[in-house]
Every structure is written in C-alpha cells, then in structure tokens.
Amino acid sequence: MPPRRPIDPSKYHNEKEEPKLVIPDVRITPHIRIREGLWEHIAQGRLTPHDVCVYLTLHRHAKWGTGICVTSAASIAGNWGGQLKLNTVQVSLGRLRENGYIKYPEGTGKRGVYPVLIGACQRV
Q: Which of 11, 47, 89, 91 could covalently link to 51 via disulfide, CB atoms 3.0 to 4.6 Å apart?
C-alpha cells in the first residue's frame, strides 16, 4: 500500500473569510418567535382564544426582519380551515389593534390585503 499524502487544510477551509450573518426577510425554519410575556397576558384574560389564534397566524406569516404581515381578515380566517369565521377574525383584529398588539391602516371599505405591523414582534 502506498503511503498516504498529508491533507492540506487550506484546500478545505479558507480562514480569511468570516461567515456573514444573514437575517432573512421570510421565515426559513418551522418555528415562530413569540414573546414570553404573551403567556402572562393570556393567563390574565387580556387575550381571548380567538385573539391568540389571530395573533399567532400574523406571526406565522410576518417577515422576521420587519414584523410586518401583509394579509386580510379573510386570509387569516382561511388559514384556520373554516374553524374561525370572518367576523370573529375582524373583531379579534380590532381588539388586538385597540390593545396595542398590532397596528394597521384604517380600512377603506374595499376588500384587499393590507400591512399589519406586529407591535410586540420579537425581531431577530
């Protein structure tokens, strides 16, 4: 058997390049980040179960870098496979907005999507 040649590490590792931290605009993991204080608000009764469903759906679809989700009440309701009614989502969105969890522009009475800023979004 011929003798083995030593491995040249410079072929496999370029020590001059530093890895760059990249924060994606979209979520690329199967996880969402939720502030720990949200559970206290749930325990205190400040959020209804419907509010939590809507809030978590917004987090699920928001861009991580900005905390903005472009959506509509109908779209959120559709994510729940008919288990949340459109009117229920609209009421929850209003309550979340009123209590400072989210911000979104006043409606024009027309259907369509709009940006929703998650006020307590934990940015990466």
A: 47
CATH number at residue 67: 1.10.10.10
Specify the number of domains making up the chain. 1
pLDDT attached to residue 3: 67
Residues 6+ apart with CB under 8 A from 1: none
> Per-residue pLDDT tens for 11-42?
555 555 555 555 555 556 667 777 888 889 99
DSSP tag of 8? -
- 6 in a structural domain: no
What are 97's two structure tokens? 């907005």
Place of tokens 């690329």: 28
